[in-house]
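Researcher: We're teaching a course module on how sequence relates to structure. For the next exercise, students receive a sequence and then see the predicted structure as tokens, so they can try to spot secondary structure elements on their own. Here is the exercise chain.
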Amino acid sequence: MAKNPGAKPRIGLLGTGPWAGRTHAPALARHPGIEFSGVWGRRPEAAAALAAASGTRAYDDVDALFAASDAVALALPPDVQAPLAVRAAEAGCHVLLDKPVATTVAGAREVADAVEAAGVASVVFCTLRFAEPTARWIEDQAAKDGWFLGEAHWLGSLYGTGSSSAYAASPWRREKGGLWDVGPHVLSVYLPVLGDVTAITAVPGQGDTHHLVLRHTSGASSTATLTLSAPPEAAEAALTLYGTGGRAELPRWDGAVDAFGAAVDALVTAARTGRPHPCDARFGLRLTEILTQAETEAARGAEERI
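Model: And here is the predicted structure for the students to work with:
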């Protein structure tokens, strides 16, 4: 993976917000198999502070960070992330993307096409696919046949009464809501187990809530209720599968730092072997296509009821 054979892969970080500071930077700083090559952010003072706290250096010029890195991790709003990921790939850097890759199909496709044209590796960080207990569970369920139904609800309380979450200040989350923020998590479980989505029904609920009914290539169906506006007392994330073997519930997981470290390992492996990871940029594009269709269906249903 490294541009200098024999050296540790150098991975830089784009982004300085709460997600970068709490997950990406700590995981990169403590990862024994890589060199944390630096931090770039849209606010230079924030980049300098995060770099100092992480034992690396800050870059004012993102292209300079690309030149000093073999790969970059991105912790940015999706539609800021996408064009920078294209630039990183064109500079020869492997890319560790956040979900969603972009909130437009065109933006996500540009990333996937750039990655393929440059011949670099890509991984989209869907937490459940990399957190140890959930990743193992997904692999086990995907190996089984006979699933006919999935039921999921992700009731985040980011905008619930009394919430003090640092993520509530995120403009893109405020605009796009739970469909785009937590929807990728649910889809990242359903797709490898039940197959790609072939049909979608979506209706809006209270606040940013969306209710989805999905049909999959396996013939199974699934449902998902997604929101960031649940009362804190009702906040919960759960997913259950039903089939000929009974029912299986997604296990609990703790934290994202270790999961992000596993995503770093996945990117390094994909870059070294040349074998695409299942959660690559093309998978990220598919998530954006599904969420875009769901958003369109929900908006159409809302208009018809007016």
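Model: If you want an answer key for the exercise: The chain has a mean pLDDT of 95. The radius of gyration is 19 Å.
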